[in-house]
Amino acid sequence: MRTLIKGGTIVNADATTRADVLVDGETIAMIGTDLQAGADRTVDATGKWVIPGAIDVHTHMELPFGGTFAKDTFETGTRAAAFGGTTTIVDFAVQTRGESLRQGLDRWHEKADGKACIDYGFHMIISDVRDDVLSEMDTLVDEGVTTFKLFTAYPGVFFSDDGAIFRAMQQSAKNGGLIMMHAENGLAIDVVAAQNAAAGNTDPYYHGVSRSPVMEGEATNRVIRLAEVAGAPVYIVHLSARDALNEVRRARDEGLPAFAETCPQYLFLSLEDMGNGFEGAKFVCSPPLRPADHQEDLWLGLLKDDLQVVSTDHCPFDFHGQKDLGKGDFRKVPNGLPGVENRVDLLHHGGVATGRLTPTRWVEVISAAPARMFGLPQKGAVAVGLDADLVVYDPQRTHTISASTHHMNVDYSCYEGWEVTGGSDVVLSRGKIIVDGDEWLGKTGDGRFLKRLRSPYLK
Ligand SMILES: [Zn+2]
Questions:
Q1: pLDDT tens track for 313-326
Q2: Model-level pTM?
Q3: CA 43 to CA 194: how far, in whole Å?
Q4: Could you report the per-residue pLDDT of 231-243, keeping only the tens digit for each?
Q5: How many whole angstroms from 17 Cα to the centroid of ligand 1?
Q6: Which of 131, 224, 306, 346 is 20 to 30 Å from the Cα of 322, by its Cα?
Q7: 70 with 61: CB under 8 angstroms?
Q8: 125 C-alpha to center of ligand 1: Å?
Q9: Ligand 1 center to residue 237 CA distance, Å?
């Protein structure tokens, strides 16, 4: 099958070019002006952009949390991603305490195999750093699971102490893997949260105020310094606060291989959204939403490359039946927000349409940088020879975000009623049109597991 995408403007991270794109089979075969090559079908991209499919390196499909599971499966979550212009996800497989990495990874392969609609890779969450686990890390890196997430938050569940984190970093310095850190001081946060709950401050809003941004800044600096001594790069996930950004910037100014992502919720939503009684549970995630004045700092961080990636931390729980586990105690609200479908459009709307980000920088943070940093050389650009993961994007089209029309399997949207500028018209995954307007043409199980390389971006 040959598909010709005609008349569009290719937006890559490094350049914008008026050219046609010929797709042959699963790959991009030719790029040029007025291509006359014979094709089985033609997609008219006049007035539109042709961008590399977006890559979301932070999702949690079916994550077990607080006695329930994130609602999107690999089937529903990857279909929703595709409607939003995302053609690759990297999800977090989970090692629970006492088990091997292999057991956790096998469980995630079972969840995804035959279900994913787009290509996917895995990171590995390490909850239990033991000698045998350290040597398993080497095996996983060789198998294409090259990145590992550890936590300074969630004592008793995912938490690792500084010694454990340091050992994992030393191991990654040897095997070429990358440690990703959830950096908040979980031990101190739990003290404040318990004090708030005991004082009768049980509304979701207190989830936000219990987790001071100072405690994110502190933990971010701590893990950066551990990595410095271990001689390893470090990547801060879901950076939410100015305090943490300042630490990342300081480290980068010193020449350290410190990297960070932020997420749309921290760029667009704020602590105020967590007010309004139990409605605030819709916005409970960790780190929490911050006072609105942090947002401009994060946008500036994206502009100046102190933040390299925007991912979603997609982890949806229904408001009715899941979030309400925390009625009467904010500590029992499952942590997480839906977002995998909205990232590309929100970043276009708030970044490109407002003039904060150039179209090329937008493509960099949603696709090209994730591909480079996470070892996916076949993705992240519109270039001959790469996978034909392509989006025909309409930068002018407006649409309204709503739970009544979104494709994520969750009963609310954090952006209900927001009118945004920009939308994906046609989405191709390895050469196959999987989304055409409102129509789903993809197939469950067509997504392939991606063995990822050690990251060349970090060296
Ligand atoms: Zn996460």
A1: 999 999 999 999 99
A2: 0.98
A3: 57
A4: 999 999 999 999 9
A5: 35
A6: 346
A7: yes
A8: 10
A9: 7
